[in-house]
Design goal:
The protein has 9 helices and 2 strands. The chain is mostly helical.
Length: 276
Amino acid sequence: MPYRGRAKKKPLHSYSLPHLHIRLSAAQIEIAELSAALKEWNDHYPEEYAKIQARVEAKKQECLAAVKKLESEIARETENDRKRRGFFSTLFGPELLPETREAVARLNARIRIIQAESRRCDEALNGTLNEGRRREVNLKIARCQEAELLEAIVRVEEEEEKARRKYGGDKLTIAAAAAYFGKTRDEADKLRSTLRLQLDIIPNCPYCGGAIGEVPHVDHIYPVSKGGLSIPENLVLVCADCNLGKSDQTLRKFVKSRGFDWERIESTLEKLGKRF
């Protein structure tokens, strides 16, 4: 059978909206977990690094002292060999006697073992540094995946609105979608930038009023499963607990189940220019 190359990856915009929103929620959970892991690492890193560095330095000093001791033994063996053979034998005879040459080889082998141990100490120290970098890279990858999913959601909703316009539908819904959705990454970036401005107005979670967290979740005030759109008026940044707890509930039902202050939430969302 002829080789056809690697199978092409299915583009994100070919999936359904519910599937994309599930993947977006999973990506946001992963971002929250990775951010927490990175924060924990950064909080404990100086202390942990200092401990490992102290152990490594002590071990390297120990290795250095051992190497110097072995080098002294080699020098002593060589000098004793010269004395045993005499001056002329040293000039015209073999460089070292067989037994001396064997002893020197053993000592050099021990030096190489100690030097390898010293290098392993350096690798352990570098491994500590690389762990922090690895966590940062994983978080960046997860955030890129979130951005790609948001872009795909915008594109799929745009296509659905095109179909609705072509085959009939609510004119107001079509007009709203046409006004806010675009094909390109720039439009998705603009949408995310607009949401980020919320933090300058309301730094806390608009629902529970608590801390919004290092990685806020994007919530559809009116759920997607009930026809909600990904437009700025229907999107709000909330804490992970509220986003996951609300799921596909309406806002009023979610507020009632949690016992939140509806008037405070209503006032906050109006201040942010949201429709609900």
